[in-house]
């Protein structure tokens, strides 16, 4: 409760430690620029496995050409 109230007062919006954790991991994993060793180290630092780490990633996939052409119609 203390962390949530403190974060909300800092950001002016509802925020949790989980949200910050997901955001940090997503940022670090963005665009697949980390090596396998770097991903393993990040997972270790965040106290989870590389498999769990992939569930944290919130970066959306780029739409394929068929999806884009449907939007252009």
Question: Can you give a write-up of this model?
Answer:
- The model has no long low-confidence stretch (mean pLDDT 78).
- This protein has five helices and no strands.
- The chain has one domain.
- The chain is 66% helix and 0% strand.
- The termini are far apart.
- The protein is mainly alpha-helical and 73 residues long.
- The radius of gyration is 16 Å and the shape is elongated.
Query: How would you state the average pLDDT, rounded?
Result: 78
Tell me what portion of residues adopts beta-strand conformation. Answer: under 5%
Silhouette: elongated
Distance between the termini: 48 Å
Helix/strand-derived category reads mainly alpha
Runs in which pLDDT lies below 50 for 5 or more consecutive residues are none
Sheet having the most strands: none
- As a percent range, the share of helical residues equals 55-70%
Secondary-structure element series: HHHHH
Radius of gyration over all CA atoms, rounded = 16 Å
Number of domains: 1
Number of helices in the DSSP assignment: 5
> How many beta-strand elements?
0
What does this entry show, briefly?
The protein is mainly alpha-helical. It has helices at residues 2-11, 17-29, 36-45, 50-56, 65-72. It has one domain (2-60).
Q: What's the SSE blueprint?
A:
Layout: H1 2-11, H2 17-29, H3 36-45, H4 50-56, H5 65-72
């Amino acid at each position: 409760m203390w962390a949530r109230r403190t974060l909300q007062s800092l950001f002016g919006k509802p925020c949790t430690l989980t949200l910050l954790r997901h955001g940090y991991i997503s940022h670090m994993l963005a665009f697949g620029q980390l090596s396998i060793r770097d991903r393993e180290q990040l997972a270790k630092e965040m106290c989870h496995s590389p498999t769990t780490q992939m569930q944290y990633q919130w970066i959306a996939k780029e739409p394929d050409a068929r999806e884009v052409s449907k939007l252009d119609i």
